User: Which sequence fits this backbone?
């Protein structure tokens, strides 16, 4: 199964909150299920800006880093979108977003394959 590594708190907002689009500098033709991987880097500046804007966020210390935290379905890749989260230049439109139990895993750039053996029982 494919995964996409995203910095926190953005990964959390995708699987637990309102973020329905992931901004990238590149186009993808990929459509389908994707695991959301929280990178080891935390975007503290963005976290503080989100809190200041009133976005409901958990304490910084509660964010999981360096592993799979959820899943979604990529349903489109667009240059324009009405979502308040779209910044472009490309947006991966995400549906069916949900959290999963944490699985520690090293991330990679772009979409990457997660061995099926790591996913046994994760969707039950």
Assistant:
């Amino acid at each position: 199964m494919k995964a996409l590594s995203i910095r926190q708190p953005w990964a959390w907002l995708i699987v637990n909150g309102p973020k329905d689009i992931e901004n990238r500098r590149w186009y993808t033709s990929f459509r389908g299920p994707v695991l959301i991987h929280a990178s080891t880097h935390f975007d503290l500046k963005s976290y503080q800006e989100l809190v200041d804007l009133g976005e409901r966020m958990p304490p910084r210390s509660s964010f999981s880093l360096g592993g799979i935290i959820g899943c979604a379905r990529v349903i489109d890749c667009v240059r324009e979108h009405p979502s308040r989260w779209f910044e472009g230049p490309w947006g991966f439109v995400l549906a069916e977003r949900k959290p999963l139990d944490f699985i520690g895993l090293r991330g990679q750039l772009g979409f990457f394959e997660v061995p099926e053996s790591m996913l046994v029982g994760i969707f039950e």
